[in-house]
Amino acid sequence: MVWALRLIFVDDNLANLKAYAALARQLEGPLDVELFTVSAEALRRCETAEPDLLVLDYRMPAPDGLEFIQAYRRLHPESDTPIVMLTGEQDRGIRRQALALGASDFLNKPADPVEFLSRARNLLKLRDRGLRLAHHAASLTEEVRQATREIAEREHETISRLMRALEYRDNDTGMHVVRMGHYARLLGEAMGLPAEEQDLLLRATPMHDVGKVSTPDNVLLKPGKLDPAEWSVMQQHASAGHDILAGSASKVLQMAAQIALCHHEHWDGSGYPQGLRGDAIPLSARICAVSDVFDALMSERPYKRPWRLEDALALIAREGGKHFDPVVAQWFLRSQREVTAILHRFADPKVAA
Amino acid sequence: MSAEPVLDGTRLDAICAGDPELAVELVEALIEDAGPMVAGAMDLAARREGHELRETAHALKGVAGNLAAARLRAAAAALEAAAAPETGRDWSQIEQAIGAVAAALEEVRALYARWTDPAGGEPNVFDLVPGV
User: Which residues pair with A32 in a beta bridge?
Assistant: First the structure.
């Protein structure tokens, strides 16, 4: 990649600047040379255009060379722009001050052309290498970010498809888990959770019933009411799901394990498997519970018609503080417009008669 | 007269990388900047303002040095030294130093006039500068 390096010369005398500019013409590579007789103007320019080499006279109307270096380093504290100050040979005290303030090098006045060109070349070469390294590092970072994003998307897609497959076993089209993920993210957003948490909710919630792979067909698919023994077997899917998902380093699977275990807990302590109450139930599971129940009510099953929206919402409102966390239930009701949009966007496909 | 050449051809050549047009341009810039400085120095001397006179001489020395005007630089350095408080500021000596500065600048102007004289053809600047 080829880029022009910017050289800024600051000297209150125009003839001096023209001499420096003439010397700069002998430097290699594309260069933008800017000359300033007023140091305050040069400083303003540096606010928006960081130079790659700054050459300053010491004696100038304010800001002088020292004040300029100080102001520049304050303006760009992370910058490694080389700064060369032109001073008289006798100004040793000034040189020490300039070094302390961030000058990179000095040139005696009048500047020796050979020395000037040699210093400028070396400093520009270093600067150019630094810029190339930074550019390379930035593109590598972007590549890693892109690759990580692709891996995460693939992971999400794999999980989604597996969960949808599982839902087919449970008399479902597979869209139930998709909608649940979106309700959960919507709730996370409405409740002000960080974006990363919202994304985890979207990805983890669809795995809430993964434990049902361990539930025998005669229980899972039984059309009628379950007897106490069957109900006990059915309840085991929560722990089974946790066992399947727990122990992973993945944040999605960690949250999914929590949700799988606790999504049948009730706010008032009447749920299962642990009978947890209130805040003892992880927030992710409380969010999942509302999403799951609402979507189940709104879905058609072989044994039931879908509920009307207002009836389903009324149940959510009624169960706040009993089955559901009242705050989560409230946020769900407040998000009715977005909830309806999700219902329509991810509707079950029509099955031909 | 100073032993220094009016212009240091080697230095001017190094700055311009042998480009005569650029050399002419730089000497023109020098004359434009140095003229008001010399006039200012005369004025300051007339008003006996030693400190400002020394500052002006210092700036003139810098410009002349950067642009290869060796004789002007030496004259400005002598003026700066004469205007320093340590030397007691002998104003007749200062007047003399200012005269030398003005004369050195006139020599630069004369050289410049020869380069740019339309009747003189297109001489190579560096042929006219001692030291090249």
Answer: A6
